[in-house]
């Protein structure tokens, strides 16, 4: 029996019996530098797992410059696809003296048959491989990871539906008999909701009789979900919209209700404790105490295996509530309805993890007058600083008068930016495209966004200039398709995150996609037919992988474990073999995305 480390995927997808079959069945082989281990066109007879040395993957049909497409080191494996396809498409050649474990074809095929998850690993896209890792964490007993995989259908209640002519007295009886906290109300072709609190307010505060109909007191603006949505997204929606329940829809039909108490019963999370502290804050000091808990929450979520996209959405919702409440505390009520506070950049996209710099602006309704607005906005900037949001180095903040303007003035700014097309103007357009209304009158931003789409979505020259930003930074791959490995690390933000964010942002402008998050934009572009689903999923998982690697470095810096390392830099040499494999695939996805954008927007010219 050979002593071999099988703790990493895909072997971690096997049980102990399966791993023992691997240990009993492998041999160890030595290859000289320059020796061809597996040649193009040769039948696949083994899966090779490198114990020591380095192996190059060569495309013999490519030019000399582009021939080297892969690079494998200790812990990496190759040859499985050659077995599945019958022959090898590429040549694998030792670049230095190498020792490899050899898993025979027959044993590999038997294990694939016995373990479907192991078989799937070799047939899947990047997105599916990343999903497998999360599922294995869940099976391994990580309660938060299990929660991340739970669907709304597992936690929803059967709805109690009444018509709008039901009296308050009858509604109370329905609630008591069904042990429910809310009723769905079908009235005049619409679906609404009435809760115990609504009924109590109607009787006590409004003085309505018991015979009053619930159609007159029901709420018809519902927060909805779907049965196959992740349960965590329902929790995020409740946090963002300050509600205690969501209605589960199937087409136009309500099929269930998810109550906050049910979600918290399914999984008790610190997230709700922080959310509750934010909502109960009655002054800036209390809000600051709640805000200070967010870094600890992030550490807890990541340690418990939360899928990063969900963590981003939850933190965006919590940050949004903090900034919203600060605006309400500081600004007169009549000013709030005549203005709209925007957050932009990663915060506007809902993709910040640790707190980012302030990137915000203010839209004023045309004709409104706000004496002393400069002092008010400076006060808001100072307060957000107290809450943990540092000032923007580029001064893109409401304390800068350039980022406070009326609707008409903003439309003029957008027109000038679109016409000039210089780097600063294009950056400002990108910032505005990511804007998200966080407080005040959100309709002011909706009108401005429509103006931006009308001005830019059909301007091919503007789109070409705008898209060119994706080529600003090189992808950290060598000419031969392998990972660059500088000692100081690769800049994952510039080389990985930015090209995806800006490329998807460009397509969103072209297709008039109103969503601001990169993940939501990807979904919308698939629905629009602009991207195919497998490639969009791979882009999303690449984005999540880059963000997770970046967050890991940021948390290490925050804890003082590696203060010398820049927070955006990832040292490839410190990654496991599986992580390097995923990173390489993700960066090749970025490279392909750049090529697609170059062809669509003629960036080669």
From TrEMBL:
An annotated Gene Ontology molecular function: magnesium ion transmembrane transporter activity
Record-linked PROSITE patterns: CNMP_BINDING_3
InterPro entries to which the protein is assigned, alphabetical: CBS_dom, CBS_dom_sf, cNMP-bd_dom, cNMP-bd_dom_sf, DUF294_put_nucleoTrafse_sb-bd, GlnD_Uridyltrans_N, MgtE_transporter, RmlC-like_jellyroll
Domain Cyclic nucleotide-binding intervals: 10-111
One GO cellular component term: membrane
SMART domains: CBS (SM00116), cNMP (SM00100)
Pfam families associated with the record: CBS, cNMP_binding, DUF294, DUF294_C
Name of the protein this chain belongs to: Cyclic nucleotide-binding protein
């Amino acid at each position: 029996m050979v002593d071999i480390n099988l703790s990493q995927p895909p072997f971690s997808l096997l049980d102990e019996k399966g791993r023992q079959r691997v240990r009993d069945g492998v041999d160890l082989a030595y290859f000289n530098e320059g020796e061809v281990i597996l040649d193009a066109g040769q039948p696949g007879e083994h899966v090779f797992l490198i114990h020591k040395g380095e192996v190059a993957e060569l495309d013999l049909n490519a030019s000399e410059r582009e021939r080297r497409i892969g690079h494998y080191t200790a812990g990496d494996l190759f040859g499985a696809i050659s077995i599945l396809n019958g022959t090898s498409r590429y040549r694998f050649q030792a670049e230095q003296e190498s020792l490899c474990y050899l898993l025979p074809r027959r044993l590999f095929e038997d294990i694939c048959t016995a373990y479907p998850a192991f078989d799937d690993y070799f047939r899947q896209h990047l997105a599916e491989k990343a999903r497998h890792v999360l599922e294995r964490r869940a099976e391994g007993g990580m309660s938060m990871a299990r929660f991340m995989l739970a669907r709304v259908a597992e936690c929803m209640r059967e709805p109690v539906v009444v018509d709008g002519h039901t009296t308050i007295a009858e509604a109370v009886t329905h609630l008591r008999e069904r042990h429910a906290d809310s009723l769905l109300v079908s009235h005049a072709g619409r679906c609404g909701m009435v809760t115990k609190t609504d009924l109590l307010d109607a009787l006590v505060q409004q003085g309505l009789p018991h015979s009053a109909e619930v159609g007159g007191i029901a709420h018809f603006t519902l927060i909805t979900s779907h049965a196959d949505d992740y349960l965590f997204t329902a929790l995020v929606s409740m946090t963002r919209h300050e509600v205690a329940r969501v209605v589960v829809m199937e087409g136009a039909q309500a099929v269930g209700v998810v109550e906050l108490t049910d979600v918290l019963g399914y999984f008790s999370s610190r997230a709700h404790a922080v959310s509750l502290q934010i909502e109960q804050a009655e002054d800036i000091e209390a809000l600051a105490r709640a805000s200070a808990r967010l870094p600890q929450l992030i550490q807890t979520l990541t340690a418990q295996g939360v899928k990063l996209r969900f963590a981003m959405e939850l933190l965006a919702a919590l940050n949004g509530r903090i900034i919203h409440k600060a605006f309400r505390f500081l600004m007169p009520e009549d000013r709030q309805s005549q203005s709209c506070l925007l957050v932009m950049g990663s915060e506007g996209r809902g993709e910040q993890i640790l707190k980012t710099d302030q990137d915000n602006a203010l839209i004023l309704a045309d004709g409104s007058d706000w004496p002393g607005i400069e002092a008010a906005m400076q006060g808001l900037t100072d307060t957000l600083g107290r809450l943990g949001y540092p000032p923007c180095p580029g001064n893109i903040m409401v304390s800068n008068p350039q980022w406070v303007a009326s609707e008409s003035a903003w439309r003029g700014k957008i027109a000038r930016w679109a016409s000039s097309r210089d780097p600063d103007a294009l950056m400002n357009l990108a910032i505005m495209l990511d804007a998200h209304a966080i407080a005040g009158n959100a309709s002011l931003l909706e009108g401005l966004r429509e103006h931006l789409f009308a001005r830019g979505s059909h301007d091919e020259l503007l789109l070409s200039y705008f898209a060119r930003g994706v080529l600003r930074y090189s992808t950290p791959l060598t000419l031969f398709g392998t990972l660059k490995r500088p000692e100081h690390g690769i800049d994952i933000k510039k080389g990985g995150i930015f090209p995806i964010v800006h490329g998807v942002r460009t397509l969103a402008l072209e297709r008039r996609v109103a969503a601001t998050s990169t993940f939501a934009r990807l979904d919308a572009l698939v629905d629009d037919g602009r991207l195919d689903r497998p490639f969009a999923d791979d882009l999303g998982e690449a984005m999540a992988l880059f963000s997770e690697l970046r967050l890991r470095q940021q948390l290490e810096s925050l804890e003082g474990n590696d203060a010398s390392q820049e927070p955006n830099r990832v040292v490839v040499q410190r990654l496991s073999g599986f992580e390097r494999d995923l990173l390489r695939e993700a960066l090749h996805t970025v490279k392909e995305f750049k090529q697609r954008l170059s062809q669509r927007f003629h960036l080669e010219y």
